[in-house]
Amino acid sequence: MSAPAVLRRYLAALDAGSVPDVLACFTADGEVVSPLYGTRSAAEFYPALFADSAPSRTELDRVYTDPDDPREVALAFHYAWTLADGTPTPFDVVDLVTLTDDRQRIVRLRICYDTAPLRSSWQRVSS
After folding, report:
1. Contact between 122 and 52 (Cβ < 8 Å)
2. Which residues, in sequence order, are CB contacts of 44 under 8 Å at separation 6+?
3. In sequence order, which ranges of the chain are alpha helices (DSSP H)?
4. Is there a contact between 44 and 34 (Cβ–Cβ < 8 Å)?
5. What is the rounded CA–CA span in Å between residue 10 and residue 24?
6. What is d(CA 71, CA 66) in angstroms, rounded to the nearest whole number?
């Protein structure tokens, strides 16, 4: 099964660093769980992320859909993240995503990756 359209739009908005475009992918009460930023509303998380970032890009590797619940999707991708000070901090990541019943919006996104190699660089520039 291919990625739902909302997830393709989400990755494109993440690449563009566009808060409005990313938030358009979420429900009004959408939530993000991040190993660096903690649990925040999407409306709080993405402005903080983009403030700490220079232009970055994603490279989608795989999409996994729960065969018993198509609202539950995992995106495996490489995030060529660059911090605001220009420090490259690339990593491989899996986003565990819960979609609305119609699969048009993101309800919850849990980000899973190893922060050890980049935590000290992030702490230096984090707003």
Report:
1. yes
2. none
3. 5-16, 19-23, 42-51, 119-125
4. no
5. 9
6. 8
CA distance 108 to 114: 20
pLDDT tens digits, one per residue of 46-62:
999 999 999 999 999 99
Closest CA to 46 of 62, 63, 24: 24
State how far the Cα of 40 lies from the Cα of 4, in Å rounded to an integer: 23
Conformational region of residue 7, where left means phi above 0, alpha means psi within -120 to 50, and beta covers everything else: alpha
Give me the amino acid identity at 32.
V
Residue listed under structure tokens 């609305």: 100
Could you report the per-residue pLDDT of 79-101, keeping only the tens digit for each?
999 999 999 999 999 999 999 99
Q: How far apart are CA 115 and CA 112, in angstroms?
A: 9
Report the distance separating Cα 10 and Cα 16, nearest Å: 10
Q: How many residues in total does the chain contain?
A: 127
